[in-house]
Automatic annotation (TrEMBL):
<dbReference type="InterPro" id="IPR001647">
    <property type="entry name" value="HTH_TetR"/>
</dbReference>
<keyword id="KW-0238">DNA-binding</keyword>
<dbReference type="InterPro" id="IPR009057">
    <property type="entry name" value="Homeodomain-like_sf"/>
</dbReference>
<dbReference type="GO" id="GO:0000976">
    <property type="term" value="F:transcription cis-regulatory region binding"/>
</dbReference>
<protein>
    <submittedName>
        <fullName>TetR/AcrR family transcriptional regulator</fullName>
    </submittedName>
</protein>
<feature type="domain" description="HTH tetR-type">
    <location>
        <begin position="13"/>
        <end position="74"/>
    </location>
</feature>
<dbReference type="InterPro" id="IPR050109">
    <property type="entry name" value="HTH-type_TetR-like_transc_reg"/>
</dbReference>
<dbReference type="GO" id="GO:0003700">
    <property type="term" value="F:DNA-binding transcription factor activity"/>
</dbReference>
<dbReference type="InterPro" id="IPR041483">
    <property type="entry name" value="TetR_C_34"/>
</dbReference>
<dbReference type="InterPro" id="IPR023772">
    <property type="entry name" value="DNA-bd_HTH_TetR-type_CS"/>
</dbReference>
<dbReference type="Pfam" id="PF17929">
    <property type="entry name" value="TetR_C_34"/>
</dbReference>
<feature type="DNA-binding region" description="H-T-H motif">
    <location>
        <begin position="37"/>
        <end position="56"/>
    </location>
</feature>
<dbReference type="Pfam" id="PF00440">
    <property type="entry name" value="TetR_N"/>
</dbReference>
């Protein structure tokens, strides 16, 4: 099969999406974005191994783009989950956050790497674009959750980053390396925390939501 070079802006955008899709599928198969490299990504996307450089300068930029897309997907998932709903209490908001985060495992994984390395390993202009777009999606989902709930904007503004931070941390714990997985087989008293991502995340996000709703200013009636 002859691979045609993308020439139009739409074709280039589609090729970039193909690379992101390939990176996401490999991350799921390999156990995390830390195992993703550019050569398998370009091969899976059906491109020549050198073609990725026309779309992303480095693996770090590719993964940062994947995280940026994750913010958009999270906001869209929350919008869909809130459609036609109103007056949600703290537990219901926590459920929405937990359900939408657990449905985006690669995004949860990326959140850790964004803070640890990805933002600092790209150009300042690329980091600026990521921040601008991620914060835009963050602000939109905070507004949507506030409008659909009885929680104040102060509570939701504190809850959303707490939920994402918990998801990032718990995802890493629940996806141990092969050596740690073997250790947990040998020492099961340590391993039980590694395989219950969704219920632990739900408990922690719900507890945080309830605690914030009782601590921060209440929404004006």
């Amino acid at each position: 099969m002859t691979i045609q070079r993308a020439r139009s802006s739409d074709a280039k955008a589609q090729r970039a999406e193909d690379l992101l899709d390939a990176a996401e599928s490999l991350a799921l198969e390999l156990g995390g974005v830390r195992h993703v490299t550019l050569a398998p990504v370009t091969e899976r996307a059906g491109l020549h191994r050198t073609a990725v450089r026309r779309y992303f300068e480095s693996k770090e930029e590719l993964l940062l783009e994947l995280a940026e897309r994750g913010w958009k997907q999270w906001r869209e998932s929350i919008d869909l989950a809130l459609e036609g709903r109103a007056g949600l209490d703290a537990r219901a908001v926590a459920d929405v956050l937990t359900d939408t985060l657990t449905a985006l495992p690669v995004f949860c994984d990326c959140l850790t790497h964004v803070a640890l390395s990805l933002e600092g390993d790209v150009s300042i202009e690329r980091a600026r674009r990521f921040k601008r777009n991620a914060f835009s999606e963050h602000d939109a989902l905070v507004a949507a959750l506030t409008d659909a709930s009885v929680l104040s904007v102060e509570v939701v503004t504190a809850l959303v980053p707490a939920a994402s931070a918990l998801a990032a941390s718990m995802w890493q714990v629940s996806h141990p390396s092969p050596s740690l997985a073997e250790l947990y087989v040998q020492e099961p008293q340590w391993g039980h925390v590694a395989y219950d991502f969704e219920p632990r995340l739900r408990l922690l996000v719900e507890s945080t939501a309830i605690g914030l709703s009782e601590t921060l200013p209440r929404r004006a009636e």
